[in-house]
Amino acid sequence: MNHLLLYCRPGFEKECAAEIRELCEQQGIYGYCKLEENTGYALFISHQPDGASLAVEQLDFHDLVFTRQWIACLPILDEVDTNDRIASLIGYVTELPECNELWVEPSDTTEGREMQRFCNSFGSAFSQTLRKQGMLPRKAANRLHIFALSGSRFYIGFAPVANSAPWPMGIMRLKFPHQAPSRSTLKLEEAWHWFIPQKQWHQFISSGKRAVDLGAAPGGWTWQLVNQNMFVTAIDNGPMAESLMETGQVTHLTEDAFTYQPYKSFDWMVCDIVDKPTRVIRLMTRWLVEGWCRETVFNLKLPMKQRYPEVKGCLEYLHNELNAAGLKARVAAKHLYHDREEITVHVRVLDRN
Ligand SMILES: C[S@@+](CC[C@H](N)C(=O)[O-])C[C@H]1O[C@@H](n2cnc3c(N)ncnc32)[C@H](O)[C@@H]1O
């Protein structure tokens, strides 16, 4: 298969395309991208007949910042017979590797959301037919995807279960915790789910840890830290929610996060300050290099233009500085579902020389 379909937040198709081309090139997979702005997807078409299959096998899905989901797929199937879509599509399933389940998904756009009910009912009918024919063996390592552009235009393809997003449309849906003082709270919760496997939570996100929240007010992120029974120093000139202060787990300092220096190191530092990405990345790097925290989640606000080069530049700066300081760290970045004009970065220091 030489088509690779990438789902993304509408408006970020260019970043998604630039990133996949670069990562594929690094693996010797060459091709070009096709995209239309605000459609919520981009297409990479490899010059090699098996370029897309190779990409989902050789690249690590976690390395993609702007892609929510990817599928190696056949060229678009246009004008599918709407009287019997299943009969029209079932033959194509045999051209794909064995898959264990089927997801029929729309794009994350207004038109896409209007197709959600159709996708659900078509997906369940098609799955039943495939199961009856033994075409969705449960132990298969891939998932079958149908990306529906309309009732008659589809991409059909597959994604390796172990190397793709485990949520339909690549979207992690979280329930807003009503006690939290701001919707921003979901960004930190999603970041933890994305960057830290659940089985490691008890080790890394646990009771008694000390955390600092830079740019904390009104306290959505602090709420997540408190909810994990951490003790939090909240830095912000703005007011923190009373309910958080009443827990006795929060110390509020009305200081400038860019000049504040801790007298003792923290387990966690989180930062949701809206400022120039180059300024924020320098601050984050300083915290890590000085040893003021062991682990961090922070946001980098994106500029209006040149978003991909800006992200790359910031991450390169971080890597270079950590290397120069002899720090071994795990760095990962993602444009999360709850992020808008920003990306989220996670860094865990593994070793200090
Ligand atoms: C997007 S809000 C943070 C929302 C917060 N994470 C939440 O979940 O409620 C950004 C905050 O950063 C604070 N801020 C901006 N510049 C700052 C600085 N230099 N020092 C401390 N706080 C700053 C602002 O006052 C604002 O409250």
UniProtKB/TrEMBL annotation:
Gene3D superfamilies: 3.30.2300.20, 3.30.70.2810, Vaccinia Virus protein VP39 (3.40.50.150). One of its GO terms (cellular component) is cytoplasm. S-adenosyl-L-methionine binds at residues 184, 217-220, 236, 256, 272. It catalyses: cytidine(2498) in 23S rRNA + S-adenosyl-L-methionine = 2'-O-methylcytidine(2498) in 23S rRNA + S-adenosyl-L-homocysteine + H(+). Transmembrane segments: none annotated. Residues 84-159 form the Ribosomal RNA large subunit methyltransferase M THUMP-like domain. Its main location: cytoplasm. Keywords: Cytoplasm, Methyltransferase, rRNA processing, S-adenosyl-L-methionine, Transferase. It is found in: Cytoplasm. Its EC number is 2.1.1.186. Residues 182-274 form the Ribosomal RNA methyltransferase FtsJ domain. Residues 1-71 form the RlmM ferredoxin-like domain. The active site is at 301 (proton acceptor). Monomer. This is Ribosomal RNA large subunit methyltransferase M.
